[in-house]
Structures are given as structure tokens and as C-alpha cells.
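I have been asked to look over a protein record a colleague put together. Thanks in advance; the entry in question is below.
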Amino acid sequence: MNRKMLTLAALAAMSTVASAQSSVTLFGVVDAAVRSVKNGSAGSQTQLASGDNMTSRWGLRGVEDLGGGLRASFHLESQFAVDTGTADPAKFFGRRSTVSLSGGFGEVRLGRDYTPTFMNGLGDEFGIVGIGSRGIFLYGAGSNLGSVASTVLRADNAISYLLPAMGGVYGQIQVAPSEGIVGNRYTGGGLGYKNSAMDVGVAYGVTDVGTPSDFKHYNVKFNYMFGFATLHTLYDVKTWGGRKTQDISIGASVPVATGTIRVGYTRANRSGGPVGSGYADGDDSSRLAIGYVHDLSKRTALYTTYSRISNDGAARSSVLGTPPAGMLGGENSSGFEVGLRHTF
């Protein structure tokens, strides 16, 4: 009897050690909003939208302690639409699918992942998503300047090296071969510094788009927490051939007793493209947005946003990210929404 009890105790102890050394976590976000948008001649439309505060998604991530400070990990993440129940038809784990080895040397990460230029653009007061986000200009329709670059947000086949923790300094180098697909070959990197109040960073990336001129992207970020509010700023530049867009963004998030007030402005200056293309001199746009997130708990929140985009020349930027077919150049876009977000 004692021998059996000792054996069971030993097995239990081994199980406890194993669970402490290896873990797998299911996580996700479910986010939906009712919104009304107006896009010039395309008219007004009421929609049930998905992911306007945080992108609706689910995923699995895990880590195994290999001993000696060495760890193996993975991250699989898939996007879905709450309003229709559909998943991304093109890439099931399209948001991220990586496996990593990390230790005192840093982290080596392989798979589909965010580019350093996108990562440095994070820190938007609206979380990069929704009708109020600067992401409408930075990552929406036309953000690759009409080229075939597919690397504005993520890169397939990415091989990345991330610096270890070094007193607030962080950085990344990434190379992604094309594997025969034009617009997928990316080389880039970023470097930054973050402490309890400040986050500053720079990033640069180049994508081979199969023409004499590469698609180039660089940005500079400066965010600062004053205590009563956090300042969010970004200067983002993209070029391809003669085409160029310069986005200057400034915003603030102000904590209040029950949530956060958010306000942001972006000016997109475009040049170098042919007249009528939306990338010519004077085809500029500006975004002004204000919103509020009301925290019901640590995982659940209500939110509301109002946003307006003013377009000049042939510009057709929309609060939807992708302009509807009936919207004409130089017409304005606006939207109002109320939503509910839950994380798990």
C-alpha cells in the first residue's frame, strides 16, 4: 500500500513539474459594433461590424522550458468575423503562425509574422483598428501605393531575430524570401527604447515588387505617458517609384474613472502619382476621430467612436478602410458606432 502511494505521489510530482515547464493557452477576442457610415456619393449604410475596438480572433500559444534558460514556443492566430461567423478564407492562421527558440541570446522566430515596420506603427490611441484609427491610412486600401507589395502588415516565410531584454532597448531584424511570389520578398528591421513613461522607435523595410523600384517603408514613433494622458505620435513614409505618402499622426488616450477617452488626428500627404490616381500631388486626406471605451470588467468593454475623413483631389479614403465603389475622389467619409468587446 505504501509503495503504491509513493508511486502515485511521484507521478503527481512529475506531472506538476511537467505542467510548470510546458503550457498551452487558448486566447481570443470577440468584438462587434453597430455602425452608421456615409461615403459621399455612395450614400449611407448601417452595418453590424466585427473588430472595431480589437480585431475579433482566436488562437493558441504555448511554451516549453527546455532548461538552461532555453525555451521553445509557438503562436497560432486566426481572424474571424463576428457578424457572419466566417473565418479568413485565404489564410486560416493568417494573423500569425510562428515557432520560436529563445534564451539569453534573444529569440529566433520562423513563420508568418508581423513586419518590423508594422510593429513600430503600433501604439495608436484607437489600437490600429476601427473607423477612428490611423490604420485606415497606414494599412488600409492603397497603403502599398498601388504596388504588389504584400508586406505592409505581415510577411510570409519570415525569418526573424529579436533582441533579448536589455534595459528597455528592443529590436528586430526580419528577412522573408519571396518563394516565387512577387511582392513577398521583404527585408527590414526596427530598434526602440521603452520605459514606464516613454516608447520611442524607428523601423525600415524594403519589399521587392518585381520592378526597377522597390517598395520602401519607414516610420518613427514617439509615445509618452504624462500621467493624466498618453500622447501617441507617428511619422510614417512609404515610397514606390515616384509615388510617396507621408502620414503624420498625433493622438491622446485619457484614462477616466470608468474607462478611456480617445482622440486622434492624421494628415496623409500624397505625391508623385499620375493625375486622377489618388496618389498625385494634392490627393491628400485627413482623419479626425474621438471615442470612449467604458470598462465593464478587465475583459469586457463597451465603446463608441465618431470619425470623419476629409479628402482632397482624387483621394478616396474611407472610414471603412476600403472605399465603396460609388464613392468619388475628393468626397468625404464619416461614421459613428457603438460596440461591445470581450476578451478571453
Notes: The first helix runs from residue 2 to 21. Confidence is low (pLDDT under 50) at residues 3-19. Residues 61 and 75 are 4 Å apart (CA to CA).
